[in-house]
Amino acid sequence: MEDLTIRLDAVSDSYYGFIVAVLTYVKKKQSRYNKVNDYLNSHPQALSSEILEFISSQDDFFEDAAYNQVSVV
Predict the structure, then answer these.
(1) Is 44 helix (H, G, I), strand (E, B) or coil?
(2) What are the pLDDT digits (tens) for 1-34?
(3) Would you put residue 14 in left (φ > 0), alpha (ψ -120 to 50) or beta?
(4) How confident is the model at residue 56 (pLDDT cuts 50, 70, 90)?
(5) The model's pTM
(6) Which of 25, 52, 55, 64 is the most exposed place for a label (fewest CB within 10 A)?
(7) CB within 8 A of 19, min separation 6: which ones?
(8) Which pLDDT score, from 0 to 100, does residue 62 have?
(9) Buried b (16+ CB within 10 A) or exposed e, 8-20
(10) How many Cα atoms are found within 13 Å in the side-chain-facing hemisphere of 35?
(11) Which helix (H) or strand (E) holds 16?
(12) Opening angle at CA 33, ends 2 and 15, nearest 5
């Protein structure tokens, strides 16, 4: 995870919240980590907004949404 943190910090418009958001997303599943890592390899000049757009377009992006975890009584 440290290597990904370093890569995210090197994004030209990187900021703390961006790094935390990406790391939070990828730590849930190895497949997420692999996809983001592959995206960064394929798009070395990507901006934070482009990386976040890529992540938010993934099929599993909403799996962790809070409203999915609330039970209705």
Answers:
(1) coil
(2) 999 999 999 999 999 999 999 999 999 999 999 9
(3) beta
(4) very high
(5) 0.84
(6) 64
(7) 5, 8, 9
(8) 84
(9) beebeebeeebbe
(10) 20
(11) helix 16-26
(12) 55
